[in-house]
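Lab notebook, bench 4. The sequencing result for the construct came back, and we need a structural model before the next group meeting so we can plan mutations. Quick request posted to the team channel:

Model the 3D structure of this chain.
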Amino acid sequence: MPSQSHSTRAEDKQMLRQAALLTRDLHRPSPARYWSDCFGSAAVGYAALAGAILSHSAALTVALVVLSILALYRAVLFIHEITHLDHRLLPGFRAAWNIGVGAPLLLPSFLYEGIHAVHHSRRHYGTERDPEYLPLAHMRPWTLPLFTLAALAMPFLLLLRFGILAPLSIFIPPLRRVLVERFSALEVNPAYHRPAPEGAFARRWRLQEIAASMAAIAILASTATGLVPLRAFVFYCVVVAGVAVLNQTRTLVAHLWENDGAELSLTDQYRDSTNVPPAFPGVLWAPVGLRFHALHHLVPRLPYHALPEAHRRLAGALPVGSAYGDANYSSLSTLLNRLARATMRRR
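Done. Here's the predicted structure in token form:
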């Protein structure tokens, strides 16, 4: 990596100093916010899913499915908070999330814990070692719809991974190695190979995987035997696929995806990430603070509920023309259009 210029290093330090000073009182998570928001959203999502399964009105069914997707999407995205939390400040939250959200939706937190830390590494961000980065802006136009629509297969891939392959891998060690290395991460970069877990994380992984496998086996078995109506299985898959497509769309605009694999300075990493400050409809497609994704890369330990206030302080305190304003955009459509135009230039 070429050495950074003096001006770049100074800009990095200034950004970090300002962010640290202006947000130092915002780092403590609110247990009431986390528990009520996450599990309230999950309760609404599951109730709406049950209502859709039982409904005999087409219009009401569609409305309930949309509500279920939005509410469960919000609950699922607390997986991102779990990767950054100091769990001593929120005891029991990770375990409760995995029981109430991760296992039933086949998205245990080990799929994201660990790999997300690599994405936040200053040396790995945007390089081929980053599991959550692809240079999408340098790819062909057809990669964007393919990237988004591939998420429709998520419920079937999760059922296969946890309901069939995980139990088989107990008896087939080579399958287990492949499963851990290639099919145990919510990643963007298909070239990423995940290392085997170790220590306390390996023990959490094992418990979470058992819970998700039990849920997947129960879903498959109860559907196959008729204990659960096929309609319920279909609606479950529709909701999980909807959550995945929403998240994939959000992922498309979380970064500009313009890095070609070189290591970037902190400021350039920030500029390659995005904030979309308007609250609506951002709280629907990028909930749990993820509409402030660039700010999150600057201060990753801030709890999600503190990000709007942190943005207000930084935007007000930093001078016009500072690097902070370079990552702020007005809407989802603005970013999607920018990315689409970038790929069009590379046909």
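The longest helix spans residues 199-224.
Will bring this to the meeting.
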